Amino acid sequence: MNMSAGWNEGNAGAVMRNPAAAILVLTMVSCAPPPAPRYTPRTREITVTMVPLLVRESRTMYPFLDRAFGPGGVLAGKEVYAFSPSTMTVVEGDTIRFNFINPEDDLHSFVLPDFTVALPGNTTTAATYVAGHAGIFPIVCNIASHLPMMSGQLVVLPAATMAGH
Fold this sequence. Notes:
Elements: H1 9-17, H2 19-31, E1 43-54, H3 65-69, E2 80-84, E3 87-91, E4 95-102, E5 108-112, E6 115-119, E7 123-130, E8 135-140, E9 151-157
Parallel strand pairs: 1-4, 3-9
Antiparallel strand pairs: 1-2, 4-7, 5-6, 8-9
């Protein structure tokens, strides 16, 4: 039994002669919490696609959009794109291997507070990101005409909440 650096055979004799000391020693040994399980960071593969939701080309298919995209309309000069998925959840310490698919001919970007990836049209782009600390982080495309619609969030769970998983 190794209780501490000061434990020796003389202590064992004293404990055996003193039942109260024996109970105290057994209580200390049996009540010690087990070592806390730790989360082992993982590498996660996430594919994000740039998805056109409402683009000016949709006016021929949906005539009611003509007014919205026309002069003075709420979508004048804009196109409504989205990230799919728009919310991604990982754990603190995880490495994310992003695979970005931009099937459109428009330029997009994927911007986190400390990470930016340019996404040229008609391309697939790979990028790696390490989720350094827990929190909810906004994702946007920094093309002005794609804001505020093209946005999302990266949810990074604290590693302590995932211990043992």
